[in-house]
UniProtKB/TrEMBL annotation, chains A, B:
Its main location: cytoplasm. Its EC number is 3.6.1.1. The keyword Magnesium applies. The keyword Metal-binding applies. It is found in: Cytoplasm; Nucleus. Its cofactor is Mg(2+). Belongs to the HAD-like hydrolase superfamily. Pfam families: Hydrolase_6, Hydrolase_like. This is Phospholysine phosphohistidine inorganic pyrophosphate phosphatase. NCBIfam families: HAD-SF-IA-v1, HAD-SF-IIA, HAD-SF-IIA-hyp3. CDD domains: HAD_PPase (cd07509). Phosphatase that hydrolyzes imidodiphosphate, 3-phosphohistidine and 6-phospholysine. Has broad substrate specificity and can also hydrolyze inorganic diphosphate, but with lower efficiency.
Amino acid sequence: MAAWRERLAGVRGVLLDISGVLYDGGEGGGTPIAGSVEAVARLKRSGLKVRFCTNESQKSRRELVQLLRRLGFHLSEGEVTAPAPAACQLLRARGLRPHLLVHDGLRSEFHQVDTSNPNCVVIADAAEGFSFQNMNKAFQVLMELETPVLISLGKGRYYKEAAGLMLDVGAYTKALEYACGIEAEVVGKPSPEFFKSALQELGVDAHQAVMIGDDIVGDVGGAQRCGMRALQVRTGKFRPSDENHPEVRADGYVANLAEAVDLLLQHAQP
Amino acid sequence: MAAWRERLAGVRGVLLDISGVLYDGGEGGGTPIAGSVEAVARLKRSGLKVRFCTNESQKSRRELVQLLRRLGFHLSEGEVTAPAPAACQLLRARGLRPHLLVHDGLRSEFHQVDTSNPNCVVIADAAEGFSFQNMNKAFQVLMELETPVLISLGKGRYYKEAAGLMLDVGAYTKALEYACGIEAEVVGKPSPEFFKSALQELGVDAHQAVMIGDDIVGDVGGAQRCGMRALQVRTGKFRPSDENHPEVRADGYVANLAEAVDLLLQHAQP
């Protein structure tokens, strides 16, 4: 593999995944990953452009930022690209009224959206909210529509909490897709539209940007398909087999965000 | 379409699906579908061979037969081919110790199976048992195995109860397949092995047998792929769009089991 200098040449902006890169969720909100608080601070001081790009769909953007601040990170809501606000734009643009299969923590993101007489389903990481009753209700709403529309906030397979790996929204989206014989529209990583809007907000071209994430498919593969470079951290949901993934090869694998920032500060050109 | 006489020529045995053909499940166990109790009785008197072939995986075979008897049907456990006993055979033959993601009503079927230190997951129609916690536990068991083995009792998309359409095991199997990046082994319809063992117990060759079911894919498509003929009833989970299914065309569509039996008694040759 080429030297880091070549691999990181010309990088001017960085998109940072949040869960599994900055912190691991769990009891009491979660814990920062060792070195990540300082790494974010160093990156922001470096002159490189920085933006956060998350598929977090259990909490509102506000709650997520509040949590991260409690954990010691410095960031504001305006620096975060998240799927729920993007989904609200899409719903309004297409006159869609969603039935929401989402975590209670996310509902506030949709308070300006008409949810009466639903003509689509929005599914997000509902965690304990993925009861049989809630899943079946969403299924029944879809089956009663002439053209069922299912909008999924991300399609992650699983994420990591202190208690272990947890099923993510993608698994439940697959269940509804199969039951209804339909394909969901994904809002969030790895959707190219989502990466492109994050890049636009970051303010650099794809070839000047690097994504740092713990998800080999959603973060690394998705960013690379948009012309970005991508590093995978060996924290969060990372598994050793990711380094031999049959379809996706990261531009580099690093122990954690702190190592990624070390390398960027050494080799990128802010 | 050819006349019924041609379509049913040479039929000597009948496989009957149960849920959606004999009865609809729901509060208090369910209700017989109009005309089905008499239709089963007439069929059994006719000289045609008859066997029941179900993907029921919420109840044990014993409980299912008890329920059907309460609803007025005459049948015994020995006349029913069901996936749980077939799964137990497979588990024993391969030395597999399952983690069971099944309805409490089905557990008795596995009482002779070693479930300590699991090296596979068996998933069945758990209904309310498909909580996030139970799904996540099964997911974690699979992810800890070097070679994850997932055995699914059927792969139905949904079934019909009095309260409406209900998500079936297939949807939840898809969720685990996606999350783990694996493919489940199906025991039950439409697995060819399952149909073949039902045919063997029925005692006629595939070309002399007809399957009657409400599931265009699981019953009709599955039976046809084994060389049988298959009729779809317009009861249970039947939906009008089934008659224009892109891949499966039944040998005939009938209002209900009573009409199917009328036609069989008129045109088949017992």
